[in-house]
Each structure stands twice: as structure tokens, then as C-alpha cells.
Amino acid sequence: MLEWVAISRAPQSHPIQSNCKGLFLQLHWDQIHRASDLWRAYWDMRDANVQNSGRYFRARGNYEAAQRGPGGVWAAKIISNVGEYLQGFLYQIYLGDSYGLEDQVSNRRAEEWGRSGQDPDHFRPAGLPKKY
Length: 132
Hints:
Helices cover about 70% and strands about 0% of the residues. With about 130 residues, the protein is an all-alpha fold.
């Protein structure tokens, strides 16, 4: 009887290991939320379909991600940089043209504005509905 009890018991995990697993899952969940801030801003921009609103939505997405803490600032910067590189790459492949330097600079300025915690409404275009 004693052998059966010893065999049937599941091994106990070390408390530090279980805490690390929980922390690991929490970090991934936080990253998903940070990325979703930028993704939501992108889809709102597409839904609004208002000319010259891209900088506002870039600032807003970065602002919302930055509100989640230092990890949000980091995630917003990485995602924004990757998006900028992909956009430039696709412009060159499909249009044979480079992405305009003025656009890159103004988009980067809007993203940095939002990541620094400043109000994204600074870039809000006229005619953008209040729901955004």
C-alpha cells in the first residue's frame, strides 16, 4: 500500500519554477496587449478613412502602448520600427520608389510624441469623428 501511494503522487514543482512560468506567461500577455494598442490604432485609422490622419493614429497607438509602462514604450518602438522598414521595403519592391523622407521623419516624430506620453490630439486632423 505504501508503494502505491508513493508512485501515485505527482512530483511537486519547485515554487521558484512555478513562479517563473507564471511570470513568463504574464510577460507574453503584456506584450500581446501592447501590440494590440498599435493594432487597434491601425484599424481605427482604416475605419475612419480620413485624409492626413495617419500621424494622429501613430501617435495614439504609441501613446496607449506607452501607458502600459517601460515595456510598452519598448514594444511600441520595436513594432513602429519594423513597420517603417516593411513599408519602405514594400514601396521599393512594388512601386520602384522609396518611401518619402518627409513622411518618414513626420511619422517618426508622431510616434516619438506618443511614446513620450504627450497628448496624441496634437496630430488630430480636422474632420476626424469624435469616436477616435
